[in-house]
Fold this sequence. Notes:
Elements: H1 2-39, H2 45-55, H3 59-70, H4 90-99, H5 113-131, H6 134-143, H7 145-152, H8 170-189, H9 196-204
Helix pairs in contact: 2-5, 3-8, 5-6, 6-7, 6-8
Amino acid sequence: xxxxxxxxxxxxxxxxxxxxxxxxxxxxxxxxxxxxxxxxxxxxxxxxxxxxxxxxxxxxxxxxxxxxxxxxxxxxxxxxxxxxxxxxxxxxxxxxxxxxxxxxxxxxxxxxxxxxxxxxxxxxxxxxxxxxxxxxxxxxxxxxxxxxxxxxxxxxxxxxxxxxxxxxxxxxxxxxxxxxxxxxxxxxxxxxxxxxxxxxxxxxx
Length: 205
């Protein structure tokens, strides 16, 4: 009888320790996740989600492009003249407007968050229709569709004409890696509830 009582107390202590450890890990995961969400926010989600759904683009790809391009600065202007959240060049913006005139925006609206996101996501969708793969979409967003097409036709950069094993521009190669990494973080941080356990493991790795 005494042995049974001792075993019961031991089991209770072990269960309490396991519960405490689980709570500590859970709090740590929540804390890490909260910090990372502040570093990788979903700003302008009402526009990103709306236009990604409209143009059939993975929203987390757009969320990865925006901080890489502008750091969520709606007034950002690059040394080359790219404008706004998704850093659209003025000539690209005008070309995109000629492709989709349903919005009625003017050039002066290029810094407007909704307009900039709309046409930036629209641009991603046009690239995606042409090339398909995420790597090529990101590369073409940075370097242009013409350059990516030429690289695909060069055996020094592509072995199958469908993917790139080498991106010859160092800045574009770096850009692709950065956007891909940022997208993976968004995929992990904002995973659906049924993926929380796997996401937590990635965050703590």
